[in-house]
Known about the structure:
Order of helices and strands: HHHHHHHHEE
Number of helices: 8
Distance between the termini: 29 Å
Strand content: under 5%
Shape: flat
Region (Disordered): 112-133
Radius of gyration: 23 Å
Number of domains: 2
Keywords: DNA integration, DNA recombination, DNA-binding
Domain Tyr recombinase: 125-190
Family: Belongs to the 'phage' integrase family.
Largest sheet: 2 strands, antiparallel
Domain Core-binding (CB): 20-101
Amino acid sequence: xxxxxxxxxxxxxxxxxxxxxxxxxxxxxxxxxxxxxxxxxxxxxxxxxxxxxxxxxxxxxxxxxxxxxxxxxxxxxxxxxxxxxxxxxxxxxxxxxxxxxxxxxxxxxxxxxxxxxxxxxxxxxxxxxxxxxxxxxxxxxxxxxxxxxxxxxxxxxxxxxxxxxxxxxxxxxxxxxxxxxxxxxxxxxx
Length: 190
């Protein structure tokens, strides 16, 4: 069983209780990751590690040592992956081992702790920022004489002002615009 059962206000039956008690620690860890993009990335990262080391099942994580992690990191570097990608992959593995240790699914320590991670060269993201002139040109592009143009300008203004991703803007609802002491606040789910 890899999915947790979602129930309403009723109590769990004895069978459901036993099913939840037998959920593997790794599946429980995945279920606790809220962001679907993070969950997907971590899942791919762990599949990559398991494939490299040759792990067939979750119970085999008990045999993983720091040497395995160091060899994987070296292989990731040889593949030419970016430092940030290698850091994320190691973070995913470290997080899983922390959870497995918490739940006594593995013994000893976290084999990822102490493994040096590549430095990230910049404090800034890779996405280039728009200059003031470019942002003004973008905002002036829609025809504000039409309702569609006014809508498009409003969408662009929200995207630019809040630095939202396209998906974040698409998921906005009316309830996300909140009024706190007379000041408008936009609640973003990212």
